[in-house]
Design a protein that fits this description.
Layout (H helix, E strand, L loop, with lengths): L2 H19 L24 E6 L13 H10 L4 E3 L5 E3 L2 E6 L5 E6 L13 H14 L11 E8 L2 E6 L6 H4 L8 H6 L27 E7 L3 E6 L14 E6 L3 H9 L12 H8 L4 E16 L9 H10 L2 H8 L4 E2 L22 H10 L11 E6 L5 H13 L5 E6 L1 H7 L9 E6 L6 H9 L16 H11 L4 H18 L2 E14 L2 E2 L1 H7 L18 E2 L4
Parallel strand pairs: 1-10, 13-14, 13-15
Antiparallel strand pairs: 2-3, 4-5, 5-7, 6-7, 8-9, 9-10, 11-15, 11-16, 12-16, 17-18
Helix pairs in contact: 8-10, 13-14, 14-15
């Protein structure tokens, strides 16, 4: 092929990508419907961001990073996680709890409207809790077995009765996204939930029933989610707030660079390679934000599959791994992890014994394993997520380090959605999986429960299949402790036990790096510049209502 033909083909491809991804942004039109809501496909004041996948916008199902960002912008919760770690009144103006912690009563903000104009009431809160528990997917695990009953005491007062004491209950309510009961039920289809049919699951794949600052106008699977400003949002609007948002399901470096250069993308995903970030940083008007928002990279080790079912084998891998190369060269700016909980989560144990690279210790542990002397019969498969190219570097380093102690490692590149399906059973889950995980609420208990309690096995968050009854009981005991200091002390003891079991290789606490245009004002980036904390609750650093778009010229 001649150079001219190559150039022409490249130009056509770039233009096609740009047209596809920017069809909902960049123009000046601002048409509105009868309610005054923006309906135009082209918005001048818009924030477009990339993500590893298009969000799952059903609050009863989704739980990954992109979905959590969408939920924060499309739905409201009773309380809201502030950047300083506190909880702000949100749909609930105030609340009371009984002395035993088993009864909670919330007074709701009157006059809140859903996107279709319906008024939000206590019945909607009750419905949303019951739906989440019944479906049992996504963030439902936070409430399943905890909430005994949800009851509307009057139009603007809701009561939760718990089955057991649950110390972080208030914190977990940042994941109770409130849906419009009448709208969901009007769109239900036959399904497995009795009178509730499919609970509106099919409709909620591409529609929302929320009251948040943005309402979904279009969702194309494997392409993007597009949402526009809800003018009647109860929280009001400030000047220069984005009129629309768009979450685009791609992490392709060339695409991101092209759109950033053309000012057709305001914020990149956090999965760009270091090389891609350097190129983005060189684009005029583009900056890089780096902040610790609670994300941790783990090499999950399948505890129920040979040879990683042996604790000494797992410890051998942990001692062989070269952590320093990772934080110095592969992911500069990140911090070596100090165990199963991120350093900035309340309840973190800073005094844990550490796994450091030590080949003598690695060989000594390997000699104690039941696979010593027959390593050639037990190769290890490690999976890295195709949507996150830098993860391949971790897999390659893991392979090289394991070879130094005689362990053969096979590297497998796997798309994210395929991985989610793969880890549904222990037999299909690989020996090792390179996965980023973030907390669901602002306590160490969030990570301990979602990562190591038996009820989270079969999900992407626990490729370890730990299923340890003692750990389960300890987690439940800690979560059931109402006194915060006592609860945090119990979290720290659990972390000690997990380090001894070595179910995972805890690689680093991630300094999330995203490129963004200087014409947007991003509250989280400004806090990072000042050395102040940013919300570690996944998704809430991207509450676009509080952003500003000063100019897109």
């Amino acid at each position: 092929m001649s150079k001219n033909k190559k150039w022409t083909l490249a130009t056509v491809l770039v233009l096609m990508v740009a047209l596809l991804l920017t069809g909902c942004g960049g123009g000046k039109e601002n048409n509105q419907d009868a309610q005054g809501n923006s309906t135009a496909a082209n918005q001048e004041s818009i924030i477009r961001s990339t993500a590893s996948d298009v969000p799952n916008i059903d609050p009863g199902v989704g739980s990954d990073y992109a979905s959590s960002i969408a939920f924060a912008n499309v739905y409201d919760t009773l309380v809201f996680p502030a950047h300083d770690g506190s909880l702000k009144p949100w749909l609930a103006t105030d609340w009371q709890t009984s002395e035993d912690g088993l009864t909670w009563v919330f007074n709701l903000r009157p006059g809140v409207k859903f996107h279709n104009g319906d008024e939000l009431t206590a019945d909607d809160v009750v419905f949303s809790m019951q739906r989440m528990i019944t479906i049992g997917e996504g963030y439902g695990y936070l409430f399943s077995g905890v909430v005994k009953e949800a009851k509307a005491l009057d139009k603007n007062k809701v009561q939760f009765t718990l089955n057991k004491k649950f110390g972080p209950f208030l914190s977990t309510l940042v994941r109770l996204y409130v849906l419009d009961k009448n709208q969901v039920m009007a769109n239900k289809k036959p399904g497995p939930y009795g009178d509730m049919g499919d609970y509106g699951k099919d409709w909620l794949v591409t529609h929302d029933a929320g009251s948040g600052p943005y309402m979904v106008k279009e969702l194309k699977k494997e392409e993007y989610m597009y949402a526009v400003k809800f003018n009647d949002f109860w929280g009001g609007w400030e000047k220069d707030a984005p009129e629309a948002i768009k979450i685009i399901g791609t992490t392709a470096g060339p695409t991101v660079r092209t759109l950033m250069t053309q000012k057709q993308l305001e914020q990149s995903d956090q999965w760009q390679t270091e090389e891609a970030l350097k190129a983005l940083d060189n684009i005029p008007g583009v900056s890089i934000d780096a902040g610790f928002t609670g994300s941790m990279l783990n090499i999950m080790l399948n505890n129920k599959k040979a040879p990683t079912d042996d604790v000494h084998f797992r410890k051998a891998l942990a001692y062989a791994f070269d952590y320093q190369t990772v934080v110095d060269k592969l992911f500069p700016g990140c911090k070596k992890a100090q165990g199963p909980v991120q350093f900035n989560l309340p309840g973190f144990n800073p005094n844990l014994p550490q796994y450091e690279r030590n080949l003598d210790k690695a060989k000594a542990e390997l000699a104690q394993s039941k696979y010593a002397g027959k390593l050639d019969q037990y190769p290890v498969d490690i999976v890295w997520i195709a949507n996150v190219p830098d993860e391949e570097k971790i897999a390659l380093l893991f392979q090289a380090n394991a070879a130094e102690i005689g362990i053969k490692v096979n590297i497998v590149k796997t798309p994210w959605l395929s991985f989610v399906d793969q880890v549904a059973t222990p037999d299909n889950t690989p020996n090792a999986s390179v996965v980023f995980v973030s907390p669901h609420y602002n306590e160490a208990g969030s990570m301990l429960e979602s990562r190591y309690h038996s009820k989270s096995t079969g999900t992407w968050e626990q490729g370890e299949w730990l299923k340890n009854p003692e750990i389960d009981a300890d987690i439940e005991d800690a979560l059931g402790t109402l006194d915060q200091n006592e609860r945090y002390a119990k979290y720290q003891k659990i972390q000690e036990k997990l380090v001894d079991l070595c179910p995972s290789i805890w690689v680093f606490d991630q300094a999330e790096k995203r490129a963004y245009q200087d014409y947007i004002q991003w509250p989280g980036a400004e806090l990072n510049k000042q050395g102040k904390p940013v919300s570690s609750v996944m998704g809430y650093n991207f509450y676009y209502h509080d952003y500003k778009v000063t100019s897109q010229k």
